[in-house]
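User: Here's a chain of 208 residues. Predict its fold as tokens.
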Amino acid sequence: CKTILEKEGELLLHEKGFQLKGKGAFDKGEVIHFSDIESFLIHKDQLEISTFFHFRYVFSHFGNLFEQFMRDLYRAKNEFLIESLFFRQGKLTREYDGAFEYFDSEDSSLFKTTGKIRLYEQSIVIIPKDRDVFSFSFLFLKSHEFDEDEYRMKIISEDGTSVLLSQLGNDFEDFQEHFLEIFGNMYTEILKEFQNFLDALIETMYVE
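Assistant: Prediction complete.
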């Protein structure tokens, strides 16, 4: 790996990426778009980014601002991913603070973290503070279960992956009530559309 350029300056976060601005007055800075990023690697207080264009960027010397920078970076990147990957399905109805543990299809824990939980009309979006956002569409849920004693909820998708939501605090009852309401509303609408389809089909048969 050959070093092409090394410089000091600022990292300016934007909605769709960030800008590398050097100290020189005429240095406008190179822009890295979130859509071009292939991977993040974190080594203590150093961030390494690889792009799909086979460029590698290494950022260091953040001082005591590294953790704050990473939180801001993931926050900006996750909002971009929510929009660009169509994670939100329907209107946003509620947002909560909580903790989550993600499991693979073999029920092995992959990571634990905290962040935001957003309920949309047809999906639940999990926004970790320190990793990429992910979501579960209500259309592809295998099951969901509330543990009212431990104030937790587990969601299992059709592909076998799952997430355990916890630390909702005083918002647990509101979260449970609202989740069940919008989940039920979605399937009510699906059944209504299916009934309308059947009615139209039957009417067509009689006309013929």
